[in-house]
């Protein structure tokens, strides 16, 4: 391999692995009166770290996750994902970068226009050129882990809430994302998904993915406490760190 | 994942293209612009100069033409003006002295005007006198036609005079019925007051072409005469040839019918026409340019005409000659004669421009090169910055690793950090045994699979050359390990399976067993970036050296004698009945209830029928052999019980009320022995290893259940985890163990980490694979 080419490869690889995965530096929301207070938010999430953010208001958690995913305009400060400033990226690159984020939202967001299978794999189908075989293999593996007998193909409206929760998890973990923004799926589901959820979480972290786990109470993640890197609280007065007991 | 992405968000394609355009495109465009400008200026200059030169040429040619016309007119004026003068001079002479006047005038003219050949005087009665130069001397020859008597043929009487007018001799020759009145020159001029011109004729005396101009005159007695002058065309041609028209311009005179009167290369024209004036026309082959001018003249009239012939530009001029019978003067000159300096000047301008362009191109190239160089340097700086950050990050991770210098823990973080930073496919840390006979792999990390392995052993006997390389103590980098004699053995044993090509061997120097030197090595396979990471690799080697030093101390303290702990005294010989090894309940050694430290090993076999395709009898024999081996091993290692349940085999040791620290060691030894025997037996039967082993160590519940014969059973988390380990083993033939087993045996056995796993109930824990004894 020529030296220059190898150096370029290494440089490219280095870009992906060095430094913080997510970095909020004095990020202040432009919009006032929203769920998230317009206060400067600062935090840093390194590869493999798992950060738990407790918040009573899950709407606020959703908005914070939007902020991390570069979906909100800032008045001041900067939000960087993989070292790239969201505000400095064009739409095309920003959208591609969002392809590296896995997300589980509290409010179910399933469209009635496509089959569940399509929506579950839509992010990967849109952002990557992975083969259908490869994608379905991974989806089936994750689905089995979360208790689905295969990939559901019905319209999401025709599926039970428990299966929708399972699908939400599969969708979140599919495609080996670099960042997981998880609005606790364990709190509301009728079925116990904690085992496959924590299994997937550990697997993703071992791979180098970083996790932000939003939760209303500590009951859901207590069992996982030893593996949590840091604990924060998101309230009216901003983002505060909590000493792990 | 990034390789599958359709849009790579980390790449700034637009900026790169813009940068390249600025670095290379702008200088090149500037050069192109300069080139176009210089070319345009050159072209414009050339065109304007050419137009100016052509205008000048036309003016010049006009002047030349006027001068030529004047000269030709002057040349012919001897004939024209002379004729008018003679008309008056002879016409007014008395009849008796007419001949004397003629001879006086003619003699004088012939002496003074060289182009004149001769003079005639004919009268209407048939009288004819002639004066011409003596062809054999410098004097004159007077000729008179003397008529014969009574109609007889007359004679020509010739008197020859010298230059002083003295009669030298007289001759006569027959006139052959010559009558001037029959001649063209006489007929065309008799009774006319204007000069008339005859066609060119060959003058017999001089063999030259002459043209005759004649004019009629009336004597004092009323008789009519015709005076004629012969003018030499050869001399006219010589005169025209001598004209200077540009560098290579030519001129020719044609009469009104297109016959050549005189002009360039006249002698050849005459020869071509065999002396026949009527054949002396323009030849399209040799005189195409004159022909073109003549054609233009016939269509457009007099004036200058530019035309192209044979790829060359010419300027042609046609002009009527005054006082002639419709004669036309044609002149042709190549444009280059006049515009050549413009072309030379243009060519030189282009050459100079080319030099300027070449210099500009070199400068632009240098600029672009410099720009690219700066860009490369910037990139290199950026890369180095990132590399430093990467190294700092990796060191920070190492610093965060607990028990980094604890020889009992696996050096997982070292290999991972090294692989991540050097982008190597596989990184391994090898420990050299203190006698230097073998290398033991403490940990090998495969970054593509994200998996650790270890426990491999390389013997000096097998790899003599490779060990010599290591003994030299120098870091070695081999691009193709299989082709290098020293590393070929290592490549064959270790690298072929992974498909790696390049190898970096970095010795670990340190102190061990009281001596310092090479105590191990690190191998980096397909490391993309290792050449840039000398210091980092050195740091990791130093860390590994510290670990090896600590390991040496531990082993020295514990000693080899404790490798196999002695079995607690009083253990009874296992019994065999429905179970392979029945728990010795009779001896009263089991206490129903909780056992504090039970070692459980679960061996799962996949279906051998499915695997082999052999007949059931052969298989049954094989299974029987394995069962016998299990029994032997159980006896040797004093296991508590061995139970068969379907495809599973559960071996237990340490079912005692008091903790039995030796139980797990005995079980591990049994596991290794069992694995060895099973692999041997299965490979002898040509069957792939179809089993995997799981082990755990900890408290369990157990007791004898039911009525006689009572069945001893054991359950609890330890059993569950041992089963889970066996089921989840990464590969067939491997022994997967829990962290508790690892903690208990880490100082005596080599393990490799399989990673952290979440298990329901027990949370996250690391899982290890038991490789071999240390």
UniProtKB/TrEMBL annotation, chain B:
PROSITE patterns: GUANYLATE_CYCLASE_2
Places the protein is found: Cell membrane
Region of interest (Disordered), ranges: 374-393
GO molecular function list: kinase activity
SMART domains in UniProt: CYCc
This protein's record includes keyword Protein transport: no
Domain Guanylate cyclase: 602-726
InterPro entries: A/G_cyclase, dCache_1, GAF, Nucleotide_cyclase
Bilayer disposition of the protein: Multi-pass membrane protein
Xref: CDD domains: CHD, PDC2_MCP_like
Signal peptide span: none
Transmembrane segments: 21-43
Basic and acidic residues composition-biased segments: 374-383
Alphabetical keyword list: Cell membrane, Kinase, Membrane, Transferase, Transmembrane, Transmembrane helix
PANTHER family, A to Z: GUANYLATE CYCLASE SOLUBLE SUBUNIT BETA-2, SOLUBLE GUANYLATE CYCLASE GCY-32-RELATED
Name the record gives this protein: Histidine kinase
Species: Acetobacter sacchari
Lineage: Bacteria, Pseudomonadati, Pseudomonadota, Alphaproteobacteria, Acetobacterales
